[in-house]
Structure formats: C-alpha cells, structure tokens
C-alpha cells in the first residue's frame, strides 16, 4: 500500500481486534497502532498520581513501553480516564496523523471508525460473547502469572464494556458502515482470514 489506506478495527475488550490488527498489518505491510495502549498509558500515570488530562497532553513514546500496561488494574484505569473528554481530545491528532501515514495504517480501539477515522477505507467491528472474551483474557493473564479467576475477569470485562458503551464522548459502537466479525466460534487463523477477505475486497474495489 503506497497511498494512505486506513483500516479501522473496533470492538469490545478481548474480542481479538489486536490479534487481527497485527496480522492484517503484517499481511498488507502497513503500520499498526493499538490505540488502547494510549489510554492504558494514561491510566497507568493516573495510578501514579498524575492528573489524567496532563498525562494525556504530555504522553511520550517511552510511556507506551513503560512496563506491562496489559494488566487488569491498568485496563480498569484506562476505561476510567477514557471517559474524560479532554483526555480523548488530547490524543486525537496523534491518532489521525498515524492513520494517514504513507503506506497505510491499521488502528484498533473503540472509536476509530466512528470518531478518529470516519473516512477509513475499511471498518471492521470485532465481537465475541462476553464469556468467550473473558476466557481468552483469563488465559492471557494467568499465562503472565496474574492471580485471578475466570469469574473475576468476566465481571471486569462486563463492567469495562458498559463504561465504554455508556460514556458521552466517543462511546464504543460500530460505525454504520462497519463489517462485523464475530470471533466467538472462530480460531485466530479463521478470524484473520475473515478480516483479510474484507480488506482485500475493498482494496480491489479501489484499484
Ligand atoms: N479467534 C481467537 N480464538 C482464540 N483466541 C483468540 C482469538 N483472537 C484472539 N485470541 C486471544 O485472545 C486474547 C485477546 O485477544 P486480543 O487480540 O488481545 O484482543 P483485544 O485486542 O480485542 O483486546 C489473546 O490472548 C489472543 O491470543
Ligand atoms: N480507541 C480507544 C481505545 C481504548 N479505549 C479505552 O481504553 C481501554 C483499554 O483498551 P484496550 O483496547 O487496551 O483494551 P482490550 O480490548 O485490549 O481489553 C478500553 O476499555 C477503553 O476504555 C478507548 O476509550 N478508546
């Protein structure tokens, strides 16, 4: 992809959007931005005592690589700072510039197809049942040595989805022109193939 070509991938917690995004970026040779990491980095700073809006306005690349941001505690903090309109506003320009870079870009998050890149050439909305998502996230967390239970992870996932769907600014929802991929009964390879098919068809339309 030599011209800007934006692929927006949204969906609830642990639906598989990051896995699909990384694979799609590798397949089409474009850059990938996990926008959840921006909110996680701001959430982590809030837990250290930095006011969230200040953290968002001064975020650096190093903050995105600071330790393990993929913990349950930081996920919860991320969804709390993500409710604050000024936090979201501080992160918009960076995401939009990334989306239009030469060579194409894949961004995954909650509001990419609706707010950050409403003009994206491809929009996907990745879903799976809460139980399937919690199971996958549970396996991921215990593999890293976290002490938790599947019930606890399910409660966290449901609470975070509700906060993300119910907030006033840029709530989690599918864009009207998004293509849905339900990964509840799809393995990783099949989920990636489903996404690749949609993207390849859109690229062919454009050629
Ligand atoms: N289709 C799938 N089948 C089984 N496991 C999956 C699938 N997609 C993702 N996973 C696993 O589920 C976990 C969450 O996936 P991830 O892509 O990080 O989700 P998200 O980015 O939506 O939070 C990871 O451990 C990942 O390997
Ligand atoms: N574009 C985005 C990305 C994430 N977020 C917030 O950041 C939190 C963490 O996002 P994430 O994508 O890392 O979470 P997972 O889906 O990987 O569990 C979400 O629950 C949202 O509250 C957001 O509001 N907008």
Main traits of this protein?
alpha/beta, P-loop_NTPase, Rossmann fold, nucleotide-binding, binds adenosine-5'-diphosphate, 207 residues, ATP-binding, kinase activity, binds cytidine-5'-diphosphate, five-stranded parallel beta sheet, Cytidylate_kin
Give the number of DSSP strands.
Answer: 5
Kindly name the structural category: alpha/beta
| Helical content band | 55-70%
> What's the CATH class label?
Alpha Beta
Q: SSE string, helix = H, strand = E?
A: EHEHHHHHEHEHHEH
Shape: globular
N-to-C CA distance: 11 Å
Count up the helices.
10
What do we call the CATH homologous superfamily?
Answer: P-loop containing nucleotide triphosphate hydrolases
| CATH architecture designation | 3-Layer(aba) Sandwich
Largest β sheet strand count, sense and barrel closure: 5 strands, parallel
Description:
The chain has 207 residues and is of the alpha/beta class. It has a single domain, classed as P-loop containing nucleotide triphosphate hydrolases (Rossmann fold), CATH 3.40.50.300. Helices cover 55% and strands 12% of the residues. It has a 5-stranded parallel β-sheet, sandwiched between helices. It is globular. The termini are close together. The mean pLDDT is 96. The site of cytidine-5'-diphosphate has 16 residues, from helix 2, helix 5 and helix 9.
Task: Write a brief caption for the model.
This is Cytidylate kinase. This protein is an alpha/beta fold and 207 residues long. It has helices spanning 17-28, 36-47, 52-57, 61-64, 72-81, 85-99, 112-116, 130-143, 150-166, 188-206; strands spanning 6-10, 31-34, 105-109, 122-127, 179-182.
């Amino acid at each position: 992809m030599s011209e800007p070509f934006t692929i927006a991938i949204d969906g609830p917690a642990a639906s598989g959007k990051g896995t699909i995004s990384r694979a799609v970026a590798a397949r089409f040779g474009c850059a990938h931005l996990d926008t959840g990491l921006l909110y996680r980095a701001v959430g982590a700073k809030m837990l250290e005592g930095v006011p969230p809006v200040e953290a968002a306005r001064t975020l650096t690349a190093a903050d995105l690589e600071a330790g393990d941001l993929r913990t349950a505690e930081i996920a919860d903090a991320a969804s709390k700072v993500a409710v604050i309109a000024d936090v979201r506003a501080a992160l918009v320009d960076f995401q939009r510039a990334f989306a239009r870079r030469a060579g194409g870009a894949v961004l995954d998050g909650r509001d990419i197809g609706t707010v950050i890149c409403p003009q994206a050439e491809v929009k996907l909305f990745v879903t799976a049942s809460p139980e399937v998502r919690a199971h996958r996230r549970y396996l991921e967390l215990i593999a890293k040595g976290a002490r938790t239970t599947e019930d606890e992870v399910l409660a966290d996932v449901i609470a975070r989805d509700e906060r993300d769907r119910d907030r006033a600014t840029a709530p989690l929802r599918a864009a009207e022109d998004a293509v849905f991929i339900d990964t509840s009964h799809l393995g990783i390879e099949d989920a990636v193939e489903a996404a690749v098919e949609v993207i390849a068809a859109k690229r062919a339309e454009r050629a």
